């Protein structure tokens, strides 16, 4: 069966023929249900871990990172909840947009939600990378200037920027359109009537790619700085373990974002500037499915790449691969602990004169009576 639909883009009428047998090539609604359920549970668990950690480090340098990480997890959670619910409603209504959305109100909301919850994680990931780069390379400036109040404002501005990009097509009277699979709404792709129809999808893709590039650049600088300080054995640099924990999480977030969002962002640019064929529709839907896994994998970065988990993995690896190294490590720790206890037992306080010389021990000793 096939059904013909007509879309009015403002400058011309485009007749499109949708094949309802497209379900042979797309994933079933079961995949959407599983993706939504796993995403909500994963983000809930990650949010619980981050809120607990934020209370511990509220007055420390890690608090800013945890604030942005919590904002990212909340965004992913709402994205799965809202977009997943809309997808399930569309499938339940048999994708008949003429019946359940004759005024295209739901499609506008669906498209706005897709753009906002797609762009927000990319922008937040880049902001987190910049914040950690400043915290590692300029710790004094970070602690004195970038206060918690400024971080909360920056988090709100990041969400506001993503929301502005999402509602721009509606303000410019370029509404979102139902895509070829009829299961989601997005920018009009491949049907540009003027420069605005080409500008909006390119703006979304360029901002996403710039966010990924900025994350790669800042994480590279942060990683090199931490490695240099580690190689120099700088004992005056405190909190290095927390820095390494955060940079490991940032690198994982960056890798997940590049793998999940890279194909989709590049496909949008190709679709907007070139003609596409029937096979490209299937590829676009697959790219969207891959992009949704970004919101599923992000919370597991904070669940698995924690200091306690990494320490247990290191000890497990030491048990399996290098028992001799573990024995040497235990011997060094026990030797150091014993030497410290011996030193603390044998040592006694010394008094210093204002000139810096050691004064003799003037402790009054009891003289035995004879």
From TrEMBL:
Protein name as it appears in the record: Prostaglandin F2-alpha receptor
GO biological process: adenylate cyclase-activating G protein-coupled receptor signaling pathway; inflammatory response; positive regulation of cytosolic calcium ion concentration; response to lipid
Subcellular localization: Cell membrane
Organism of derivation: Aldrovandia affinis
Residues annotated as domain G-protein coupled receptors family 1 profile: 42-302
Topology within the bilayer: Multi-pass membrane protein
Gene3D superfamilies named among the record's database cross-references: Rhodopsin 7-helix transmembrane proteins (1.20.1070.10)
Pfam family, one: 7tm_1
């Amino acid at each position: 069966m096939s059904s013909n639909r007509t879309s009015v883009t403002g400058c011309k009428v485009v007749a499109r023929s949708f094949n309802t047998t497209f379900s042979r090539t797309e994933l079933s609604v079961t995949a959407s249900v599983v993706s939504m359920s796993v995403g909500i549970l994963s983000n809930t668990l990650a949010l619980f871990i981050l809120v607990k950690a934020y209370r511990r480090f509220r007055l420390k340098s890690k608090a800013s990172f945890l604030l942005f990480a919590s904002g990212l997890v909340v965004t992913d959670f709402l994205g799965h909840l809202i977009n997943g619910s809309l997808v399930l409603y569309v499938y339940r209504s048999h994708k008949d947009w003429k019946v359940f959305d004759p005024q295209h109100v739901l499609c506008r909301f669906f498209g706005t939600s897709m753009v906002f919850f797609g762009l927000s994680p990319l922008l937040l990931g880049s902001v987190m990378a910049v914040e950690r780069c400043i915290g590692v390379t300029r710790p004094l400036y970070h602690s004195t200037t970038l206060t918690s109040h400024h971080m909360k404002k920056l988090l709100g501005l990041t969400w506001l920027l993503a929301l502005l990009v999402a509602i721009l097509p509606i303000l410019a009277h370029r509404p979102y359109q139902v895509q070829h699979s009829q299961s989601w709404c997005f920018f009009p792709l491949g049907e540009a009537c003027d420069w605005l129809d080409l500008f909006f999808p390119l703006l979304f893709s360029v901002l996403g790619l710039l966010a990924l590039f900025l994350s790669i650049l800042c994480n590279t600088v942060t990683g090199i700085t931490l490695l240099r300080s580690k190689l120099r054995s700088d004992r005056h640099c405190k909190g290095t373990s927390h820095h390494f924990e955060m940079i490991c999480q940032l690198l994982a977030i960056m890798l997940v974002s590049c793998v999940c969002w890279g194909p989709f962002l590049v496909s949008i640019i190709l679709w907007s500037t070139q003609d596409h064929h029937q096979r490209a529709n299937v590829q676009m839907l697959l790219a969207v499915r891959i992009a949704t896994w970004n919101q599923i994998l992000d919370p597991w970065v904070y669940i698995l790449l924690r200091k306690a988990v990494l320490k247990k993995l290191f000890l497990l690896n030491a048990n399996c691969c290098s028992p001799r190294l573990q024995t040497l490590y235990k011997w060094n720790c026990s030797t150091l602990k014993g030497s410290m206890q011996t030193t603390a037992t044998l040592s006694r306080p010394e008094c210093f004169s204002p000139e810096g010389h050691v004064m003799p021990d003037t402790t009054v000793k009891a003289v035995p009576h004879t």
